[in-house]
Structure formats: C-alpha cells, structure tokens
C-alpha cells in the first residue's frame, strides 16, 4: 500500500514503512494537517498537492518491483495509477469512494478512468454517474464495503457495557461517529441536541476541526459529550451502548462506513436522505430524513418517545447487516483483480 502520512487526523508519530500481518505500507511524508485542511476548500489545489509526490514515489516503486495489479482509491490516485498501469502493462483497478457531483468532474473522470480495466463503484448512483460520463458500462461494477462482524456485533448485555463506560442506563443515547466537521453534519446535530431534553445524551466520537466547539458546548450542555477519536475495539462498545446512531452529512456522500458498523452491532441508524445513504438502509433498520436541525430533532424525539418501535428496528439490524455487509463482499474485488466481474 502506497499512501501519505495522515493528512487530516493530526497523528504524526506513524512510521514511513510498516508491515501489518502481511500488508506492507509505504507512507509518503507530506504537509501538516493545518495546511492541508486549508487546501480542501479548493479542489484543484487539493488534488494538485496530492498528485506529484505520490506519482513520483509510485513510479520509482514500480521500476523496482514487479506489480501484477495496481488498485487505486479515488480520482487523485486514479490519475496516478491509470497512466502507470498502461506504461507498465499492469492490470488496473480503481475504487471510487464518492459521487461525481460536479459536471466538470464528470467530464474529467472519463479521461482519468478510461485506462482502467475495472472500475468499482460503491453505489448504483455512482455507477450511473461514471457511465454517464462516457465510460463503457462493461468496465463498471457496483461493490459494497464490509466490516469485521466478529468484532462489530451486538453486546451480550447493554446495561453492563453502559456501566463500564460510565453511561447512565436510563439515558437515551444518540451517537455520532466520524470526522467532526460541518460537512459531516456535526453542526446541525449539535443544534438539535440543544433542543432535546437532558434525558437524551449526545456522544460525539472522532477527530476534526469542530472538537473545540463541541468541547465548549459540552461545558454548557449536560447532554453533550465529546469522546474524541478511538480504536475500533473501544468504539464497538459505544455502538453497543447507543440507542441510535445518527449520520447526517450535508453533502452527497459516496459511502458511510459508520452505517455498516452500527447495524452490525444491532443499533438502528437515522441517516441523511442524501447520496449513498438512500441505498444503504431501509425502514426495517432506520430512517432517512433531510438532515436539517428540525428534522433531526423531530425524529430523535419520536424514537425517544416510542422505544418499542426503535427496539423492533434494533432486532432486525444485525441480520440486515449480515445479509449485506459481510466479508463475502470482498469477492467482487478479487474478481476484478483476476479479470472477472459480476455486472
């Protein structure tokens, strides 16, 4: 795996080269988090800043090593891997993790994606966008992420987990997991929390530029708590302790891993009716709403007052996740590596 040192999490003490159970990771040292976050507002500068260092590193790597398949993730990586796969006559595969919302991006994507043998889109919507840009449909296949469902699983005893985490068993817990920024809907969820009674407690987990704002809000609001980033082994306990997980992005998000983790733990999801999310859940395991303050507030209050209905969703969540988000989904990627795919 060729990638960068962390760009947005603020973590600095990572090795440039690491081997994790057979996965060899090579990291390119790059600009600090505070500078990179300012580039994100300008997509051209952001993409340009990422391209050159990784292109040079990848070119040198491929000159020194035999590569059978080059698998790019996202359009920036694709702009690097596509030409190199042709230059070295290597099979090229690309995974798209977002939606191609802008018309200019759709036009550009055609030229970036055409060199690849297989294009993996995370949703039907994403596939339609790619094919609509002029890429042959025969190259595009829809795939779905998965999670380790032996780790992300329902708790044996929710009350015991809450006691271990210092959470009152009587509280109604609303959980947000992800990057703490307005784009992810943290701002609107925080405003919804201000309208809710103290019996509903909001936990925010993850890193991001809004950490200070949430921390200050937590000093004034007894029902708001900032937990910060944490490892999956700890995070799974919070999923198990929560009554409801909220995923309220303010943009057309390409995929939301939090949904897979939450449902695998048996916790229903309240999600934005945007992007990939409309394909990821249905009313048997959660609800989709337009993600503004009033809609989030009303739906949270509805579940708070109708616990029996929420319990029915929770009962079906794990089975729903097992059917859709297990490691069986990896086979689509393996077929793309071998030159086979189910379309």
Describe this structure in words.
The protein is 45% helix and 17% strand. It has 343 residues and is an alpha/beta fold. The strands form three sheets. A six-stranded parallel sheet has the order 10-9-8-11-12-13, with helices on both faces. The protein has a four-stranded parallel sheet with strand order 4-5-6-7, with helices on both faces. Helix 2 (43-64) packs parallel to helix 3 (74-87) and helix 7 crosses helix 12 (293-305). The longest helix has 22 residues, at 43-64. The model has no long low-confidence stretch (mean pLDDT 89).
Uncertain runs are none
CATH H-level superfamily of the largest domain: Glycogen Phosphorylase B
Shape: globular
- What's the alpha carbon Rg, rounded to whole Å? 21 Å
Mean pLDDT: 89
In total, the number of strands is 13
Fraction in helix: 40-55%
User: What is the CATH C-level name of the largest domain?
Assistant: Alpha Beta
Strand content: 15-25%
The CATH architecture term of the largest domain is: 3-Layer(aba) Sandwich
Largest sheet: 6 strands, parallel
Q: Could you say which structural class the secondary elements and strand pairing correspond to? A: alpha/beta
Summarize the topology.
Layout: E1 2-4, E2 17-20, E3 23-28, H1 33-39, H2 43-64, E4 69-73, H3 74-87, E5 91-96, H4 103-113, E6 118-121, H5 124-132, E7 140-142, H6 158-165, E8 172-177, H7 186-195, E9 200-205, H8 211-220, E10 224-228, H9 232-241, E11 244-247, H10 257-264, E12 269-272, H11 277-280, E13 286-289, H12 293-305, H13 307-324, H14 330-338
Parallel strand pairs: 1-3, 4-5, 5-6, 6-7, 8-9, 8-11, 9-10, 11-12, 12-13
Antiparallel strand pairs: 2-3
Helix pairs in contact: 2-3, 6-9, 7-12, 10-13
């Amino acid at each position: 795996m060729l990638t960068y040192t962390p760009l947005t999490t603020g973590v600095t003490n990572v090795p440039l080269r690491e081997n994790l159970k057979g996965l060899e990771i090579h990291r390119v040292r790059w600009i600090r988090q505070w500078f990179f976050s300012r580039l994100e507002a300008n997509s051209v500068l952001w993409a340009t800043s990422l391209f050159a260092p990784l292109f040079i590193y990848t070119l040198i790597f491929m000159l020194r090593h035999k590569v059978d398949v080059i698998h790019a993730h996202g359009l920036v990586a694709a702009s690097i891997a596509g030409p190199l796969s042709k230059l070295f006559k290597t099979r090229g595969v690309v995974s798209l993790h977002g939606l191609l919302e802008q018309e200019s991006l759709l036009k550009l994507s055609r030229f970036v994606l055409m060199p690849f043998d297989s294009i993996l889109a995370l949703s039907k919507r994403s596939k339609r966008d790619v094919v609509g840009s002029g890429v042959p449909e025969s190259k595009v296949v829809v795939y779905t992420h998965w999670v380790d469902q032996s780790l992300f699983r329902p708790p044996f005893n929710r009350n015991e987990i809450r006691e271990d985490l210092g959470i009152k068993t009587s509280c109604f817990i609303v959980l947000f997991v992800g990057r703490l920024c307005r784009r992810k809907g943290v701002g609107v969820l925080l405003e919804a929390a201000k309208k809710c009674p103290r019996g509903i407690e909001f936990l925010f987990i993850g890193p991001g530029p809004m950490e200070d704002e949430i921390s200050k809000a937590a000093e004034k609001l007894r029902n708001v708590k900032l937990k910060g980033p944490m490892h999956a082994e700890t995070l799974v306990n919070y999923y198990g302790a929560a009554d409801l997980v909220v995923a309220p992005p303010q943009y057309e998000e390409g995929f939301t891993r939090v949904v897979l983790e939450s449902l695998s733990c048996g916790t229903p999801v309240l999600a934005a009716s945007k992007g990939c999310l409309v394909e990821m859940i249905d009313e048997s395991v959660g609800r989709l709403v337009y993600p503004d303050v009033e809609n989030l507030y009303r739906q949270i209050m509805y579940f708070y007052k109708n616990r029996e209905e929420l319990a029915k969703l929770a009962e079906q969540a794990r089975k729903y996740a097992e059917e859709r988000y297990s490691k069986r989904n990896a086979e689509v990627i393996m077929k793309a590596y071998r030159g086979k795919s189910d379309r």
